[in-house]
Design a protein that fits this description.
3 strands, 381 residues, Serine Threonine Protein Phosphatase 5, Tetratricopeptide repeat, three-stranded antiparallel beta sheet, mainly alpha
């Protein structure tokens, strides 16, 4: 008996399922004209018909004046049409409504963030992003947008906290290189404010993120130099050369400052000699070594050093210029002529400026974040 009842129930289930499936297939989709005004306005917005969308949304707002989301959409359409003032006014007025739910408040704040960004008012945008996060600390959209504004503001400590929070929420591996850069920038800020110990903690943190990021070692070395802890500063410079030799030149001015302050002139020469022996194509080491030797009046030795570097790097214009310049100083006209007129014409004095490849912003020192366009690691000599 039980088996018969189960069989009948199964048959009825199949019949009902088949009926509803047939009904779903035979039901015609709603035509655009049959949609309510709000839905119609959203479709028109997706189609890019902004004027029609605005008309439909205004009609929807009349039909449902308490609906916050309709008014938000009206503001967004006005922003897209270029009427930013009216868009912002609508969104600001919505904030004054009483008995708003958290979702409604967040939606209004989100619209205002985009308004302020469009108006190039980053401080106001960040203020409203913080209000979103006060309502929902795990709001990923707000966290993502906050990172951009925190970088522009140079608030690297807050950037680090926000980036860690976002990575945890999204369950993604954190960008170690980016975090190394930001930790180093925060270290620079702390050291500049006289907080050397705290700054060094940030540099050490940066090295944990990326062992091959040179600025962390430079920051450590400079902070030790300021406290006259010269040997520790030199250890960090040596660590930089070990882990990222291609950036060794960045440490040359600091190295010379440290050793010259202590009258340890011979050690400078030995340092550069070691570099040229271990890294044959590090042209800046040959140039730096030749200049140290020239200070001692040993021009023939300086010439030999540059010649070795030129033989290994024949197309490098920096070493070509230094070699030609030394020939001029020594009045070796015949050897200078052998370089060829075409080579001499295209040689220009070496520059120590760095240029952002994205926007052309120039800086005297190497930068890892462009304050002009917000690009990361976009600078080259």
């Amino acid at each position: 008996m039980v088996e018969i009842l189960l069989l009948l129930a199964f048959i009825l289930l199949i019949l009902f399922g088949g009926y509803f499936y047939y009904q779903s297939l035979s039901r015609k989709p709603l035509r655009r004209s049959e949609l309510d005004a709000f839905e119609k306005g959203l479709y028109e917005l997706l189609d890019g018909d902004l004027q029609s969308s605005l008309k439909s949304l205004h009609l929807a707002a009349k039909e449902d004046p308490e609906n916050v989301f309709i008014r938000i959409r009206i503001g967004e359409v006005l922003r897209k049409l270029g009427d930013l003032d009216r868009a912002m006014k609508i969104h600001l007025e919505l904030q004054k409504r009483e008995h708003l739910s958290n979702n409604e408040r967040i939606a209004i704040l989100r619209a205002l963030v985009v308004d302020f960004e469009a108006a190039n008012l980053p401080q106001q945008a960040l203020l409203h992003l913080n209000q979103i996060l006060a309502l929902n600390k795990d709001h990923t959209w707000a966290l993502e947008h906050s990172l951009k504004h925190l970088a522009e503001k140079g608030d690297w400590g807050a950037y680090l906290q926000t980036a860690r929070r976002l990575a945890t929420l999204q369950q993604k591996n954190i960008d170690s290189r980016r975090m190394a850069i930001v930790s180093t920038l925060e270290g620079d800020r702390l050291v500049a404010n006289g907080k050397g110990k705290d700054g060094r903690l940030r540099y050490r943190e940066a090295i944990k993120y990326d062992l091959n990021f040179p600025a962390s070692y430079l920051g450590l070395a400079e902070s030790y130099r300021q406290e006259k802890r010269y040997d520790e500063a030199l250890q960090e410079i040596n660590a930089l050369v070990e882990h990222c030799p291609e950036y060794a030149e960045l440490a040359f001015p600091l190295l010379e400052t440290i050793l010259f302050e202590q009258n340890r002139f011979d050690e400078v020469e030995k340092f550069y000699q070691k570099l040229t022996q271990q890294h044959l194509h590090l042209v800046h080491a040959y140039v730096a070594l030749s200049k140290i030797v020239q200070r001692k009046g040993e021009y023939e030795k300086a010439m030999k050093i540059l010649k070795e570097g030129l033989d290994l790097n024949p197309s490098n214009e920096l070493i070509q210029f230094e070699y030609a310049n030394l020939l001029r100083q020594m009045n070796r006209v015949d050897e200078l002529a052998k370089l060829g007129l075409d080579v001499m014409k295209r040689l220009a004095p070496p520059t120590s400026s760095y240029v952002c490849k994205k926007c052309g912003f120039t800086a005297e020192k190497m930068r890892w974040y462009c304050p002009s366009c917000g690009s990361w690691e976009s600078f080259s000599r």
